[in-house]
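Ticket #4471: structure export looks truncated?
Reporter: QA, pipeline team
Priority: medium

Steps to reproduce: submit the single chain below to the structure queue and open the exported record.
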Amino acid sequence: TVTTIGAWRVGRRVNLEPALRAGDALGGHLVSGHVDGIAELRARHDEARSQRLRFLLPEPLARYIARKGSVALDGVSLTVNEVGPQEFEVNLVPHTLAVTTLGELAVGEGVNIEVDLIARYAERLLAAQ
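Actual output as written to the record:
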């Protein structure tokens, strides 16, 4: 299974953000809206003025996750804070917890993950050499 959409029910909230228009300033990460796989929430705890969430991801996607790189979880673009062999952590500020579905996520649940777009292109370019 590559996406969580099969478990969605009528009335489920989703995260939507309008696409960047030509000429708009780029103020964040590059996100295409594609789903690369499912990451599982393993732990969450309060940390300072945020919540830290730790996710387990499929092994083939682990190489695309870098500390201070970007990842999209259920369509929400986030900065990666810590990386392990097959796990990574992000921090969610109160605004993100309030306006996205990530505040409702329970340990053990899966999220759609989109790995860093630039990492994918870098891998492809290096493989061509």
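Status: closed, not a bug. The export was complete when the record was re-opened. Leaving a note from the reviewer for reference: The chain has a mean pLDDT of 91.
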